[in-house]
UniProtKB/TrEMBL annotation:
Pfam families in UniProt: DEAD, Helicase_C, RecG_dom3_C, RecG_wedge
Family: Belongs to the helicase family. RecG subfamily.
Residues of the Helicase ATP-binding domain: 268-427
Name of the molecule in the record: ATP-dependent DNA helicase RecG
Length: 672
């Protein structure tokens, strides 16, 4: 009998070997499959061009009426073009950088092309050639190597056929479902995977979005209420004289914004109330040194502090910088990649209290870690760490103070809603003497000139990042683009530079090694599909080239730009893009006009609409499977209002209307 927690291997037609592949997508059980939703749908029903809106993606069928030819331009760029006839209309078809498709289009052949309609030019930019046309909406899921769309859809269908859907319990109170006219959970999950039509899908999406945002807000409001009722927060009596003396030894003066943020944090630590603060600052604004001084404050009060970061390479980086700032203290590193013997030594130092500052990844909250006297917890890029993980940390110490850091400038209105349970400190000023990164926007046709200029920069001992964007349509296409770019650059630069490649399919330790080699100047150029980890510091890297920059949101572009300009040399960011619309052009112009992340965040909010405002996995904004904190701001606000109203009643858990909440509340970990 299949249960929600049954392993995928128990499904008919799936054994341990095929189920193993699904773990790459973090899918382990039948329940995981049910709740793994598509990120978009392709409507494979062929449309007449007269039904299409400008810019709409659709399937268009017709007869090929002119021979297909390929034109080459720029640096290994090309366009395949021909015309088709649909009824009496003649449509120009263009495929970019896919010359190998030329044989598929013979004059007189009937073709079905999935692409983007340009009404003004009466043209379609092709994305895919379809062998046959379906009549329905096809789900498109994020996949990984070894797991195809077809395999994933098959597994989900088998899970449905096994009756697993009927085991899903309703997670929303009936009162709220009636009030907002929401679809039931089982029905919504079915429709999310296999909608009959767009109207049905929109209803399911509304239900799932509300559920995600409502539980996110419930967690925040419960946490806020717990914090308010807690008078047993730590009163950390730090030594003010020692902190001032330490600040005087820093190789640079603190900015006014840094001083203000530090005094807000220290005031929280000294008070008996539990600190729950978000430290927000632009890339390079000096958040880390403020966090380090707060850790030093805890040390002067005889307490340990822990700094938790998302990746091992960042943990190593913070570990080295803390050792540099506090040579007199015992700083300990703890990550899952460490050798067992080293790990045992670290654990023993943490437990005995010999370790005064601890830096690590998720390893810091594992059962084996016993703190001697934990007073302060700092999490960097806190969207990676869920509410439940924060609770574990609180239980590890005597309710330690919590400080969270994010490098994403978040407009204040959004920060208040997204981080409703936190106080916010903002470092909105850059350290003196830091050179402004010069940003230029060029068209693809000008890439040759850029490469020639890069050659001269490499001769001055510079290092260069090249970012090839993630294209959601296909993971294999991302890789193909990055591999092609890597080959082109290797050919262009020859013996004058070593070009490294980093992409999402690599294992973490492999990526860390490539990044380490780049830091050690073993490679001069790094091509990457994955957005380079926030906070990774390579002072010698002075040039950032972002290919197809119009595919990124402003905040993402700004994050990427922040990977350079980390040393004392002049740094540059080159945006290579031929934007198709005004929004894309405005983004490029905004990037060239300002390096202020807060200005760009507000600008991004004005231009929003596609849900890419904060980019994937790069912001301090919590992530959700289907909800978008900017696009769905109205739902988020309503969810906050309702959650706040429920939790304001101290006896809400006894109210029969809210019984269903308790069971689902602890299962939510909405930041991960």
């Amino acid at each position: 009998m299949i249960q929600l927690d049954s392993p995928i291997a128990d499904l008919k037609g799936f054994g341990p070997k095929s189920a193993e592949k699904f773990t790459k997508l973090d899918l382990h059980t039948v329940g995981d499959l049910l709740l793994y939703f598509p990120f978009r749908y392709e409507d494979f029903k062929s449309k007449s061009i007269f039904e299409l809106m400008d810019g709409e993606k659709a399937v268009i069928t017709g007869t090929v009426v002119t021979p297909a030819n390929v034109q080459y331009y720029g640096f290994k760029r090309n366009r395949l073009s021909f015309k088709i006839k649909q009824g009496e209309a003649v449509i120009a078809i263009n495929f970019f950088n896919q010359p190998y498709l030329v044989d598929k289009f013979e004059v007189g052949a009937e073709v079905a092309i999935f692409g983007k309609w340009d009404r003004k030019k009466s043209a379609v930019t092709g994305m895919k050639v379809l062998a046959h046309v379906e009549d329905d909406m096809q789900p498109v899921y994020h996949v990984a190597q070894g797991v195809s769309q077809a395999q994933l859809i098959k597994a989900i269908k088998v899970a449905f056929d096994s009756g697993a859907l009927n085991l899903l319990e309703e997670s929303l109170p009936q009162v709220l479902m009636d009030k907002y006219r929401l679809m039931g959970r089982q029905e919504a999950v079915r429709v999310m995977h296999f909608p009959k039509d767009l109207a049905e899908y929109k209803q399911a999406l509304r239900r799932i979005k509300f559920e995600e945002l409502f539980y996110f807000q419930m967690n925040l409001q419960v946490l806020k209420a717990e914090n308010k009722s807690e008078t047993n927060g730590l009163a950390i009596s730090y030594d003010e004289v020692k902190i001032k003396a330490k600040i005087a030894t820093l190789p640079f003066p603190l900015t006014k914004a840094q001083e203000r943020s530090l005094s807000e944090i220290l005031a929280d630590m000294k008070s008996g109330a539990h600190m729950n603060r978000l430290l927000q600052g632009d890339v390079g604004s000096g958040k880390t040194v403020i966090a380090s001084l707060a850790m030093y404050g805890a040390y002067t009060a005889g307490l340990q502090s822990a700094l938790m970061v998302p990746t091992e390479i960042l943990a190593e980086q913070h570990y080295q910088s803390l050792k540099g700032l506090f040579p007199e203290l015992k700083v300990v590193l703890l990550t899952s990649g460490m050798k067992m013997a080293d790990k045992k030594v670290a654990l023993s130092k943490i437990e005995s209290g010999e370790a005064q500052m601890i830096v690590g990844t998720h390893s810091l909250i594992q059962d084996a870690v016993i703190y001697h006297k934990l007073g302060l917890v700092i999490t960097d890029e806190q969207h990676r760490f869920g509410v439940n993980q924060r609770r574990i940390f609180r239980e590890k110490g005597d309710n330690p103070d919590v400080l969270m850091m994010t490098a994403t400038p978040i407009p204040r209105t959004l920060a208040i809603t997204a981080f409703g349970e936190m106080d916010v400190s903002i470092i909105d000023q850059m350290p003196a003497g830091r050179k402004t990164i010069i940003t230029r926007w060029v068209k693809h046709e000008q890439l040759d000139t850029v490469l020639t200029w890069i050659k001269s920069e490499l001769e001055k001992d510079a290092q260069v990042y090249f970012i090839s964007p993630l294209i959601e349509e296909s993971e294999s296409l991302d890789l193909k683009n990055a591999v092609a770019l890597h080959q082109e650059l290797t050919e262009f630069f020859g013996d004058s530079a070593t070009v490294a490649l980093m992409h999402g399919r690599m294992k973490n330790d492999e990526k860390d090694q490539i990044m380490q080699d780049f830091k050690d100047k073993k490679s001069q150029i790094l091509v990457s599909t994955t957005v380079i980890e926030v906070g990774v510091n390579v002072p010698n890297a002075t040039v950032m080239v972002i290919m197809d920059a119009d595919r990124f949101g402003l905040s993402q572009l700004h994050q990427l730009r922040g990977r350079v300009g980390r040393g004392d040399k002049q740094s540059y960011c080159v945006l290579v893009a031929n934007p198709k619309n005004d929004t894309g052009k405005k983004r490029m112009q905004a990037m060239c006009e300002t390096t202020d992340g807060f200005v760009l965040a507000e600008e991004d909010l004005k231009m929003r609409g596609s849900g890419e405002i904060f980019g994937t996995r790069q912001s301090g904004i919590p992530e959700f499977q289907v909800a978008d904190i900017v696009e769905d701001y109205n739902i988020l606000e309503e969810a906050r209002r309702v959650a706040s109203q429920i939790v304001s009643d101290p006896n809400w858990r006894e109210n029969p209307d809210w019984q269903v909440l308790e069971a689902h509340l602890r299962n939510q970990d909405e930041f991960d």
